[in-house]
Each structure stands twice: as structure tokens, then as C-alpha cells.
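Q: What would this complex look like in 3D?
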Amino acid sequence: MALKKVLKDFDIAQIANSGQCFRISNLDDDLWEVLAFNQRLIIKKLTQEDYIFECTEKEFQDYWIEYFDFKTNYSQIKQKIYQIGDSYLNDAINYGYGIRILKQDLWETIVSFIISQQNNIPRIRGIIKKLCDPFDGRFPSPFELSGYSESNFIGLGLGYRARYIFDIVRAFLDEKLNLEKLKGLETSEAKVYLKRFNGIGEKVANCILLYGLHRIEAFPIDVWIKRIIDLRYNGNFDITKFENFAGIIQQYMFFYERSKKF
DNA sequence: CTGCAGGCCCTTA
DNA sequence: TAAGGGCCTGCA
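A: Here is my prediction, written as C-alpha cells for the whole assembly.
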């Protein structure tokens, strides 16, 4: 099945390169593979707003509307950002016009962003691919990882993060990590809950909140964002004026700043 | 050979 | 509360 979709505020290449996900791949010029929720989706970009989704309408409704956050009006969010009158932010949203915050699987997000720490994106993608390979490309559940030892994880190239992954699998199996409970917590409580686990600090916790729990007020500060704040805002960037969508602004900033390097 | 990549943990003071 | 060293690994 091939569905033709006209989509505003959506650019699959920008989303794939905005650092929020590690399993969207460029197969060919305008051909993309999206792996998420045990699904594999092929997307073809025709023009700026015209896309072909290789799936049924039911799959589109059941998975991809949610995953790509199509129910959220990003034009409205951009309008709010324009109204702030910050020229750097205006440039950032003009440049990353097609970025959206994905709603990713919570378990996958937790594991992926523990892996991401002090690591580069190509290597993160490689490790996650190696993790998924034995499971037909699906992201393994905690149960499927229950037999893995710390050295199994080291064998994937995880380095010192192997223990963190080993620990978080155990925490899930011991029900110390309860995903349903986590989903029900208010954002600041959820952050405290996450940071109790080995390998989850302030930054990783914020990424999990933003990408796994869609708490768009979460504002992860990595080296890139810190650099922006230091260089362009004299070390003082007030996120309170962003009406609880600072995380979306962070995504535009991150993508824009990184683009300057490449 | 160093330096670094979307940090975190642990120790000190 | 803040600052600093160490850390797996792979690549430039």
C-alpha cells in the first residue's frame, strides 16, 4: 500500500538528522526507512510537502500519526516563537522548518539515550543496530535482554555504559523501573524518578522526558546547546518565557547549530 | 600521538 | 553546591 500524504511542517531528513532518534535511515536520495514500535515504514519524499508512505491507512492512523506527532500544530508553535522576537530563534525555525518531536517508545528511548552519553551519533546508531540485529531489527524488550550479561553488552561496543544497560534491564525486571508508573508522573517527579537509575543524569533524563514521554517542556542541555547559550546568550538563556514548549525550541536550536558545522 | 563525541559517577572541599 | 578526574570506544 502506498499512501500519498500532504504534510506541513514535516521534513523527514531534518527529523532524522535532528539527533532525537537513531533508527531512521536514508536508503536513497529521497527514500527513508523508519524503524519504530516493531514496525518498518518506508517513506518517499516527492516534493516539499508531498510524501508517499508505504503503509496502509490503518497503519498510518494506528502508528504514524502518533509517532510523528501529526496532531500537534507546529505552525502555531512557530508563530509563538516568532512573537518572542529573537532573531537567532527565528533563523533556527526557518532553517529547521520540518522538525517535529517524535513520540518514541519509552523503553527504547531510555536505553538509547543512556547509550548516547559521551558518544557520537554514528557510533550510537551502530551500537543500536547491533543491539537490534538478533531480533529481526526490532528493538529488544527488557525480557529479551534479560539473559544478557554485562560482557554481552560490552561486546556490542557499549564500553562503560554496558553496566548502565545491564542495570536498567535488571531494574525493569525487578519492577524498580515501572514504565506505566513513570508515564503517570508529573514531569518534575518523572525526572527525579529517572535520575535514580545508574547512568541517567540531568541531560539523559531530559531527553527521555522529551522524546519518550513527550514532555515538551523538558530542555536537554548538551554540549551544543551549552555552546549556543554561552556564545549567543552570554551564558544566560531563560526558558521560562517559552510557555512550556522549550523542548521544541531546543530541537530547532540543536539542528540549526549543528548544520553550521557540516 | 592527542582530542573528542548530545555525560555520568564519584570524590573532595 | 561546585569542581575536577576518570571512563569504553572509534575516528579524525
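A: To summarize the key features: The two ends of chain A are 36 Å apart (CA to CA). Residues 118-120, 122-123, 126, 154, 157-162 of chain A lie near DNA strand C (CB under 10 Å from a C1').
Q: Very helpful, thank you.
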